[in-house]
Amino acid sequence: MIPTRGYAATDPTTPLGPFDFERRDPRPHDVVIDILHCGVCHSDIHQARDEWGESIFPMVPGHEIVGTVASVGADVSRWGVGQTVGVGVFVDSCRKCEPCLAGEEQYCVEGMTVTYNGLERDGQTPAYGGYSERIVVDENYVLSIPDGIPLDGAAPLLCAGITTYSPIRHFGGDQAREAAVLGLGGLGHMGVKFLKAMGAGVTVLSHSPGKKEDALRLGADDFEATADDDVFDKNAGRFDFILDTVSATHDYNAYLRLLRRDGTMVIVGLPDASTLEPGALINKRRRLAGSVIGGIREIQEMLDFCAEHGIASDIEAIRIQDINEAYERTMRSDVRYRFVIDMASLRQGGG
Ligand code: NAP
Ligand code: ZN
Protein backbone atom coordinates (compact mmCIF):
# COMPACT_ATOMS: atom_id res chain seq x y z
CA MET A 1 0.00 0.00 0.00
CA ILE A 2 1.11 3.57 -0.66
CA PRO A 3 0.80 6.01 2.27
CA THR A 4 -0.96 9.13 0.99
CA ARG A 5 -1.87 12.45 2.54
CA GLY A 6 -5.12 14.16 1.69
CA TYR A 7 -7.76 16.52 3.04
CA ALA A 8 -11.00 15.03 4.26
CA ALA A 9 -14.42 15.86 5.62
CA THR A 10 -15.07 13.70 8.68
CA ASP A 11 -18.76 14.62 9.04
CA PRO A 12 -21.19 17.04 7.38
CA THR A 13 -20.46 20.03 9.62
CA THR A 14 -16.76 19.96 10.59
CA PRO A 15 -14.33 21.84 8.30
CA LEU A 16 -12.10 19.69 6.11
CA GLY A 17 -8.67 18.87 7.54
CA PRO A 18 -5.57 16.74 6.91
CA PHE A 19 -6.16 13.00 6.59
CA ASP A 20 -3.67 10.18 6.05
CA PHE A 21 -4.72 7.05 4.21
CA GLU A 22 -3.37 4.40 1.82
CA ARG A 23 -3.69 3.96 -1.92
CA ARG A 24 -3.58 0.45 -3.35
CA ASP A 25 -0.37 -0.85 -4.90
CA PRO A 26 -0.78 -0.64 -8.66
CA ARG A 27 -2.36 -3.66 -10.31
CA PRO A 28 -1.19 -4.69 -13.82
CA HIS A 29 -3.60 -2.22 -15.48
CA ASP A 30 -3.22 0.65 -13.00
CA VAL A 31 -1.62 4.05 -13.39
CA VAL A 32 -0.21 5.89 -10.36
CA ILE A 33 -0.69 9.64 -10.76
CA ASP A 34 1.00 12.37 -8.72
CA ILE A 35 -1.69 15.06 -8.46
CA LEU A 36 -0.68 18.60 -9.45
CA HIS A 37 -4.07 20.36 -9.47
CA CYS A 38 -7.60 19.54 -8.36
CA GLY A 39 -10.65 21.68 -9.09
CA VAL A 40 -13.28 22.43 -6.45
CA CYS A 41 -16.70 21.44 -7.82
CA HIS A 42 -19.94 22.46 -6.14
CA SER A 43 -20.70 18.72 -6.02
CA ASP A 44 -17.79 18.42 -3.56
CA ILE A 45 -19.66 20.80 -1.24
CA HIS A 46 -23.04 19.08 -1.68
CA GLN A 47 -21.43 15.74 -0.76
CA ALA A 48 -19.05 16.90 2.00
CA ARG A 49 -22.11 18.49 3.65
CA ASP A 50 -24.24 15.42 2.95
CA GLU A 51 -26.82 17.45 1.01
CA TRP A 52 -27.62 14.49 -1.25
CA GLY A 53 -27.79 11.96 1.62
CA GLU A 54 -25.78 8.73 2.03
CA SER A 55 -22.39 10.44 2.15
CA ILE A 56 -19.52 8.18 3.24
CA PHE A 57 -17.12 9.66 5.83
CA PRO A 58 -14.26 10.29 6.08
CA MET A 59 -14.55 11.76 2.57
CA VAL A 60 -11.64 12.98 0.45
CA PRO A 61 -13.46 15.00 -2.24
CA GLY A 62 -12.11 16.01 -5.64
CA HIS A 63 -12.93 14.81 -9.16
CA GLU A 64 -11.23 17.38 -11.37
CA ILE A 65 -7.73 15.95 -11.28
CA VAL A 66 -4.66 16.76 -13.35
CA GLY A 67 -1.32 15.15 -12.59
CA THR A 68 1.76 13.36 -13.81
CA VAL A 69 2.13 9.63 -14.30
CA ALA A 70 4.51 8.43 -11.56
CA SER A 71 4.49 4.72 -12.41
CA VAL A 72 2.44 2.18 -14.34
CA GLY A 73 1.42 -1.45 -13.83
CA ALA A 74 3.12 -4.22 -15.84
CA ASP A 75 0.39 -4.46 -18.50
CA VAL A 76 -0.16 -0.74 -19.10
CA SER A 77 0.77 0.23 -22.64
CA ARG A 78 -1.08 3.52 -23.24
CA TRP A 79 0.53 5.62 -20.55
CA GLY A 80 4.15 6.36 -19.68
CA VAL A 81 5.95 7.87 -16.70
CA GLY A 82 6.00 11.67 -16.86
CA GLN A 83 2.91 12.02 -19.06
CA THR A 84 0.33 14.66 -18.08
CA VAL A 85 -3.04 13.05 -17.47
CA GLY A 86 -6.46 13.71 -16.02
CA VAL A 87 -9.07 11.88 -13.95
CA GLY A 88 -12.70 12.95 -13.73
CA VAL A 89 -15.83 11.94 -11.86
CA PHE A 90 -15.53 8.16 -12.29
CA VAL A 91 -12.66 5.68 -12.15
CA ASP A 92 -14.33 2.47 -13.33
CA SER A 93 -17.63 0.93 -14.49
CA CYS A 94 -18.95 -2.56 -15.31
CA ARG A 95 -17.59 -2.36 -18.91
CA LYS A 96 -20.21 -4.78 -20.27
CA CYS A 97 -23.64 -3.13 -20.09
CA GLU A 98 -25.18 -1.34 -23.05
CA PRO A 99 -24.20 2.19 -21.91
CA CYS A 100 -20.61 1.10 -21.12
CA LEU A 101 -20.27 -0.57 -24.53
CA ALA A 102 -21.66 2.61 -26.11
CA GLY A 103 -18.90 4.63 -24.41
CA GLU A 104 -21.37 6.25 -21.98
CA GLU A 105 -19.90 4.79 -18.81
CA GLN A 106 -21.52 7.57 -16.75
CA TYR A 107 -24.84 5.76 -17.31
CA CYS A 108 -23.45 2.28 -16.42
CA VAL A 109 -26.36 0.06 -15.41
CA GLU A 110 -24.48 -1.08 -12.29
CA GLY A 111 -23.58 2.53 -11.55
CA MET A 112 -20.31 4.19 -12.41
CA THR A 113 -17.56 3.74 -9.84
CA VAL A 114 -17.23 7.30 -8.61
CA THR A 115 -13.86 8.88 -7.88
CA TYR A 116 -14.88 9.57 -4.27
CA ASN A 117 -17.87 9.16 -1.93
CA GLY A 118 -18.45 5.62 -3.20
CA LEU A 119 -16.95 2.17 -2.99
CA GLU A 120 -14.47 0.60 -5.37
CA ARG A 121 -15.68 -2.32 -7.48
CA ASP A 122 -14.93 -4.76 -4.67
CA GLY A 123 -17.92 -3.17 -2.92
CA GLN A 124 -15.87 -2.57 0.24
CA THR A 125 -12.98 -0.17 -0.25
CA PRO A 126 -13.94 3.51 0.03
CA ALA A 127 -12.83 5.58 -2.94
CA TYR A 128 -10.87 8.72 -2.07
CA GLY A 129 -10.68 11.66 -4.46
CA GLY A 130 -8.33 14.30 -5.70
CA TYR A 131 -7.73 16.47 -2.63
CA SER A 132 -4.67 14.28 -2.12
CA GLU A 133 -1.08 13.68 -3.17
CA ARG A 134 -1.73 10.88 -5.61
CA ILE A 135 -4.36 8.54 -7.03
CA VAL A 136 -4.25 5.02 -8.50
CA VAL A 137 -6.61 4.51 -11.46
CA ASP A 138 -7.24 1.83 -14.09
CA GLU A 139 -5.65 2.88 -17.39
CA ASN A 140 -8.99 2.88 -19.24
CA TYR A 141 -10.35 5.68 -17.05
CA VAL A 142 -7.40 8.05 -17.49
CA LEU A 143 -7.52 11.01 -19.88
CA SER A 144 -4.73 12.61 -21.86
CA ILE A 145 -4.29 16.36 -21.30
CA PRO A 146 -3.37 17.82 -24.69
CA ASP A 147 -0.45 20.25 -25.02
CA GLY A 148 -1.36 23.90 -24.95
CA ILE A 149 -3.93 23.95 -22.13
CA PRO A 150 -2.58 25.43 -18.86
CA LEU A 151 -2.60 22.54 -16.40
CA ASP A 152 -4.44 24.34 -13.59
CA GLY A 153 -7.05 25.60 -16.04
CA ALA A 154 -7.39 22.08 -17.45
CA ALA A 155 -8.41 20.47 -14.15
CA PRO A 156 -12.01 21.83 -14.13
CA LEU A 157 -12.54 20.50 -17.64
CA LEU A 158 -12.69 16.98 -16.15
CA CYS A 159 -16.06 17.76 -14.56
CA ALA A 160 -17.31 21.30 -15.26
CA GLY A 161 -16.06 21.04 -18.83
CA ILE A 162 -17.60 17.72 -19.80
CA THR A 163 -20.83 18.37 -17.86
CA THR A 164 -21.55 21.34 -20.10
CA TYR A 165 -19.96 20.12 -23.36
CA SER A 166 -21.90 16.84 -23.44
CA PRO A 167 -25.49 18.18 -23.19
CA ILE A 168 -24.69 21.09 -25.52
CA ARG A 169 -23.70 18.53 -28.16
CA HIS A 170 -26.37 15.97 -27.33
CA PHE A 171 -29.34 18.34 -27.22
CA GLY A 172 -28.31 20.63 -30.08
CA GLY A 173 -27.23 23.66 -28.05
CA ASP A 174 -24.40 24.02 -30.55
CA GLN A 175 -27.01 24.72 -33.27
CA ALA A 176 -28.96 27.26 -31.21
CA ARG A 177 -29.48 30.73 -32.59
CA GLU A 178 -30.28 31.89 -29.08
CA ALA A 179 -28.87 29.82 -26.23
CA ALA A 180 -28.91 30.77 -22.56
CA VAL A 181 -26.75 29.67 -19.67
CA LEU A 182 -28.42 29.88 -16.29
CA GLY A 183 -25.92 30.50 -13.46
CA LEU A 184 -22.41 31.80 -14.11
CA GLY A 185 -20.29 29.57 -11.89
CA GLY A 186 -17.84 26.76 -12.59
CA LEU A 187 -20.16 24.91 -14.97
CA GLY A 188 -21.85 28.01 -16.35
CA HIS A 189 -18.69 29.80 -17.44
CA MET A 190 -17.58 26.67 -19.33
CA GLY A 191 -21.01 26.48 -20.97
CA VAL A 192 -20.61 30.04 -22.23
CA LYS A 193 -17.17 29.28 -23.67
CA PHE A 194 -18.33 26.11 -25.45
CA LEU A 195 -21.51 27.60 -26.89
CA LYS A 196 -19.57 30.58 -28.17
CA ALA A 197 -16.84 28.42 -29.73
CA MET A 198 -19.52 26.32 -31.43
CA GLY A 199 -21.16 29.37 -32.97
CA ALA A 200 -24.32 29.74 -30.88
CA GLY A 201 -25.61 33.10 -29.67
CA VAL A 202 -25.24 33.12 -25.88
CA THR A 203 -27.08 34.95 -23.11
CA VAL A 204 -26.15 34.60 -19.45
CA LEU A 205 -29.05 34.57 -16.96
CA SER A 206 -27.62 35.36 -13.54
CA HIS A 207 -28.79 36.31 -10.06
CA SER A 208 -25.51 38.22 -9.59
CA PRO A 209 -25.81 41.53 -11.47
CA GLY A 210 -22.09 42.20 -10.91
CA LYS A 211 -21.13 39.37 -13.27
CA LYS A 212 -22.25 41.19 -16.42
CA GLU A 213 -18.79 42.36 -17.49
CA ASP A 214 -17.32 38.91 -16.94
CA ALA A 215 -20.11 37.27 -18.89
CA LEU A 216 -19.42 39.47 -21.90
CA ARG A 217 -15.65 38.96 -21.58
CA LEU A 218 -16.18 35.18 -21.48
CA GLY A 219 -17.98 35.44 -24.82
CA ALA A 220 -21.64 36.01 -24.02
CA ASP A 221 -23.56 38.28 -26.40
CA ASP A 222 -26.08 39.33 -23.78
CA PHE A 223 -26.61 39.32 -20.00
CA GLU A 224 -29.91 39.32 -18.14
CA ALA A 225 -30.10 39.89 -14.38
CA THR A 226 -32.77 37.49 -13.12
CA ALA A 227 -33.44 39.76 -10.13
CA ASP A 228 -34.98 42.34 -12.48
CA ASP A 229 -38.77 42.27 -12.24
CA ASP A 230 -39.45 42.39 -15.96
CA VAL A 231 -36.79 39.88 -17.08
CA PHE A 232 -39.20 36.94 -17.42
CA ASP A 233 -41.75 38.94 -19.43
CA LYS A 234 -39.13 40.58 -21.59
CA ASN A 235 -37.47 37.29 -22.54
CA ALA A 236 -40.54 35.03 -22.75
CA GLY A 237 -40.31 32.57 -25.66
CA ARG A 238 -36.81 33.77 -26.63
CA PHE A 239 -34.41 30.83 -26.37
CA ASP A 240 -33.91 27.60 -28.36
CA PHE A 241 -31.78 26.08 -25.64
CA ILE A 242 -31.19 26.73 -21.93
CA LEU A 243 -28.45 25.08 -19.89
CA ASP A 244 -29.43 25.26 -16.20
CA THR A 245 -26.35 25.01 -13.96
CA VAL A 246 -27.83 26.55 -10.80
CA SER A 247 -26.80 24.81 -7.56
CA ALA A 248 -29.64 26.17 -5.38
CA THR A 249 -33.38 25.47 -5.53
CA HIS A 250 -35.17 27.70 -8.06
CA ASP A 251 -38.37 27.82 -10.09
CA TYR A 252 -37.87 25.70 -13.23
CA ASN A 253 -41.24 26.84 -14.62
CA ALA A 254 -40.19 30.48 -14.84
CA TYR A 255 -37.17 29.54 -16.96
CA LEU A 256 -39.06 27.03 -19.12
CA ARG A 257 -41.30 29.92 -20.19
CA LEU A 258 -38.24 31.59 -21.69
CA LEU A 259 -38.02 28.77 -24.27
CA ARG A 260 -39.49 29.21 -27.72
CA ARG A 261 -41.60 26.54 -29.41
CA ASP A 262 -39.76 23.17 -29.41
CA GLY A 263 -37.00 24.61 -27.24
CA THR A 264 -35.05 22.46 -24.78
CA MET A 265 -33.93 23.19 -21.24
CA VAL A 266 -31.29 20.85 -19.85
CA ILE A 267 -30.79 20.63 -16.10
CA VAL A 268 -27.28 19.83 -14.92
CA GLY A 269 -27.38 21.55 -11.52
CA LEU A 270 -28.36 19.34 -8.59
CA PRO A 271 -30.26 21.31 -5.91
CA ASP A 272 -33.20 19.96 -3.93
CA ALA A 273 -36.36 19.04 -5.83
CA SER A 274 -38.89 21.65 -6.94
CA THR A 275 -42.28 21.54 -8.60
CA LEU A 276 -42.93 21.30 -12.31
CA GLU A 277 -46.03 22.87 -13.88
CA PRO A 278 -47.19 20.89 -16.94
CA GLY A 279 -48.34 24.09 -18.61
CA ALA A 280 -44.79 25.38 -18.73
CA LEU A 281 -43.96 22.46 -21.04
CA ILE A 282 -47.03 21.77 -23.13
CA ASN A 283 -47.85 25.27 -24.29
CA LYS A 284 -44.95 25.49 -26.70
CA ARG A 285 -44.10 21.76 -26.99
CA ARG A 286 -41.04 22.44 -24.84
CA ARG A 287 -38.63 19.79 -23.62
CA LEU A 288 -37.04 19.46 -20.19
CA ALA A 289 -34.00 17.17 -19.99
CA GLY A 290 -31.10 16.29 -17.71
CA SER A 291 -27.55 15.13 -18.18
CA VAL A 292 -24.68 13.84 -16.06
CA ILE A 293 -21.01 14.46 -17.04
CA GLY A 294 -19.96 12.45 -20.13
CA GLY A 295 -18.17 9.21 -21.09
CA ILE A 296 -14.43 8.70 -21.45
CA ARG A 297 -14.46 9.03 -25.25
CA GLU A 298 -16.41 12.28 -25.10
CA ILE A 299 -14.22 13.70 -22.31
CA GLN A 300 -11.19 13.16 -24.54
CA GLU A 301 -13.05 14.75 -27.46
CA MET A 302 -13.88 17.76 -25.23
CA LEU A 303 -10.24 18.10 -24.08
CA ASP A 304 -9.05 18.01 -27.69
CA PHE A 305 -11.72 20.60 -28.60
CA CYS A 306 -10.40 22.85 -25.81
CA ALA A 307 -6.82 22.55 -27.09
CA GLU A 308 -7.94 23.34 -30.62
CA HIS A 309 -10.00 26.37 -29.60
CA GLY A 310 -7.73 27.72 -26.86
CA ILE A 311 -10.27 27.02 -24.12
CA ALA A 312 -9.51 26.47 -20.43
CA SER A 313 -11.31 27.25 -17.21
CA ASP A 314 -10.83 30.67 -15.60
CA ILE A 315 -9.44 29.73 -12.23
CA GLU A 316 -8.36 31.08 -8.89
CA ALA A 317 -5.56 28.94 -7.49
CA ILE A 318 -5.76 28.15 -3.78
CA ARG A 319 -3.73 26.26 -1.19
CA ILE A 320 -5.37 23.17 0.26
CA GLN A 321 -5.22 24.90 3.66
CA ASP A 322 -7.73 27.44 2.28
CA ILE A 323 -10.30 24.89 1.10
CA ASN A 324 -12.92 25.71 3.75
CA GLU A 325 -12.88 29.40 2.87
CA ALA A 326 -13.17 28.42 -0.82
CA TYR A 327 -16.31 26.42 0.01
CA GLU A 328 -17.82 29.44 1.77
CA ARG A 329 -17.03 31.72 -1.15
CA THR A 330 -18.49 29.23 -3.62
CA MET A 331 -21.69 29.19 -1.55
CA ARG A 332 -21.84 32.98 -1.90
CA SER A 333 -21.42 32.68 -5.71
CA ASP A 334 -18.11 34.49 -5.17
CA VAL A 335 -15.88 32.40 -7.41
CA ARG A 336 -14.36 33.55 -10.70
CA TYR A 337 -14.90 30.93 -11.94
CA ARG A 338 -13.37 27.83 -10.39
CA PHE A 339 -11.16 27.33 -7.36
CA VAL A 340 -8.32 24.97 -8.19
CA ILE A 341 -6.10 23.53 -5.45
CA ASP A 342 -2.38 23.70 -6.08
CA MET A 343 -1.42 20.34 -4.60
CA ALA A 344 2.15 21.49 -3.93
CA SER A 345 0.59 23.19 -0.88
CA LEU A 346 -0.31 19.77 0.54
CA ARG A 347 3.21 18.44 0.12
CA GLN A 348 4.82 21.58 1.58
CA GLY A 349 2.30 22.79 4.08
CA GLY A 350 1.42 19.64 5.98
CA GLY A 351 -1.66 20.71 7.87
P1 NAP B 1 -21.01 26.99 -8.73
O1 NAP B 1 -19.67 27.27 -9.29
O2 NAP B 1 -21.27 27.25 -7.32
O3 NAP B 1 -22.06 27.75 -9.67
C1 NAP B 1 -23.44 27.70 -9.42
C2 NAP B 1 -24.07 29.02 -9.86
O4 NAP B 1 -25.46 28.94 -9.60
C3 NAP B 1 -23.59 30.23 -9.08
O5 NAP B 1 -22.39 30.77 -9.55
C4 NAP B 1 -24.75 31.19 -9.29
O6 NAP B 1 -24.61 31.82 -10.56
C5 NAP B 1 -25.95 30.26 -9.35
N1 NAP B 1 -26.65 30.28 -8.07
C6 NAP B 1 -26.16 29.91 -6.87
N2 NAP B 1 -27.06 30.11 -5.89
C7 NAP B 1 -28.14 30.62 -6.49
C8 NAP B 1 -29.41 31.03 -6.02
N3 NAP B 1 -29.74 30.97 -4.73
N4 NAP B 1 -30.31 31.46 -6.94
C9 NAP B 1 -30.00 31.54 -8.24
N5 NAP B 1 -28.79 31.20 -8.73
C10 NAP B 1 -27.90 30.72 -7.88
O7 NAP B 1 -21.38 25.44 -8.94
P2 NAP B 1 -20.91 24.42 -10.09
O8 NAP B 1 -19.70 23.71 -9.65
O9 NAP B 1 -20.95 25.12 -11.38
O10 NAP B 1 -22.10 23.34 -10.01
C11 NAP B 1 -23.43 23.73 -10.30
C12 NAP B 1 -24.39 22.60 -9.98
O11 NAP B 1 -24.16 21.53 -10.92
C13 NAP B 1 -24.20 21.98 -8.61
O12 NAP B 1 -25.47 21.66 -8.09
C14 NAP B 1 -23.42 20.71 -8.89
O13 NAP B 1 -23.59 19.71 -7.93
C15 NAP B 1 -24.00 20.30 -10.21
N6 NAP B 1 -23.15 19.43 -11.03
C16 NAP B 1 -23.78 18.54 -11.83
C17 NAP B 1 -23.03 17.73 -12.66
C18 NAP B 1 -23.71 16.78 -13.60
O14 NAP B 1 -23.06 15.88 -14.12
N7 NAP B 1 -24.99 16.98 -13.89
C19 NAP B 1 -21.64 17.82 -12.66
C20 NAP B 1 -21.04 18.76 -11.84
C21 NAP B 1 -21.80 19.57 -11.04
P3 NAP B 1 -25.01 33.39 -10.70
O15 NAP B 1 -24.20 34.09 -9.64
O16 NAP B 1 -24.59 33.72 -12.08
O17 NAP B 1 -26.48 33.48 -10.50
ZN1 ZN C 1 -18.07 17.94 -10.37
Automatic annotation (TrEMBL):
Domain Enoyl reductase (ER): from-to ranges: 8-341
InterPro entries documented for this protein: ADH-like_C, ADH-like_N, ADH_Zn_CS, CAD-like, ER, GroES-like_sf, NAD(P)-bd_dom_sf
Named cofactor requirement(s): Zn(2+)
GO molecular function: alcohol dehydrogenase (NADP+) activity; zinc ion binding
Protein name: NAD(P)-dependent alcohol dehydrogenase
Keyword Plastid included in the entry's annotation: no
Region (Disordered): 1-22
Keyword tags: Metal-binding, Oxidoreductase, Zinc
Family per record: Belongs to the zinc-containing alcohol dehydrogenase family.
Parts forming coiled coils: none
Pfam families to which the protein is assigned, alphabetical: ADH_N (PF08240), ADH_zinc_N (PF00107)
